[in-house]
Write a structure and sequence with these properties.
Radius of gyration: 14 Å
Number of strands: 7
CATH class: Alpha Beta
CATH topology: Nonspecific Lipid-transfer Protein, Chain A
Strand content: 25-35%
Mean pLDDT: 95
Number of helices: 6
Largest sheet: 5 strands, mixed
């Protein structure tokens, strides 16, 4: 069954993919930091969505939708319009290029992200494996 993106169901499916991916576990064995994905509204999605992912040493300890940035503090907040996140997940936009060009805004240590490029890329690979249903422009 497809998981609508963005949604609580999608981020929970991502948790399952991450926790069953040996390549991610290896690449992220030293990663320490939770992330909030701030999916901003655009032509594809009329309202914002915040998805929290607790990543720790190659595992995803928890993943769920949050109502507000005040509800949960995370080491990183990654913010972009829905269409940018979709292009990254589909492999049409390199996540590191998106960060450098500020299509994907990073709140947190950009240095840490740049030192952990393999982890970031494996994470995106996991996101691409989620059975996803993406919105289409109306």
């Amino acid at each position: 069954m497809s998981n609508p993106f963005p949604s609580d169901a999608w981020v929970k499916a991502l948790k399952e993919v991450i926790n069953s991916d040996a390549d991610y576990a290896q690449a992220a064995q030293n990663w320490e930091g939770d992330v909030i994905f701030h999916v901003e509204p655009d032509d594809l999605a009329p309202k914002p969505m915040l998805m929290y992912v607790d990543l720790w040493h190659g595992q995803c300890r928890d993943a769920y939708e949050v109502a507000s940035l005040d509800d949960k503090k995370a080491a990183f907040v990654l913010a972009a319009p829905t269409s940018v996140f979709i292009r990254i997940i589909q492999g049409k936009l390199d996540p590191m290029q998106a960060m450098i060009t500020r299509q994907l805004k990073v709140h947190g240590s950009m240095v840490y992200m740049m030192k952990n490029v393999p982890t970031v890329l494996k994470f995106v690979k996991c996101a691409s494996k989620v059975d996803s249903e993406f919105p289409v422009a109306q």
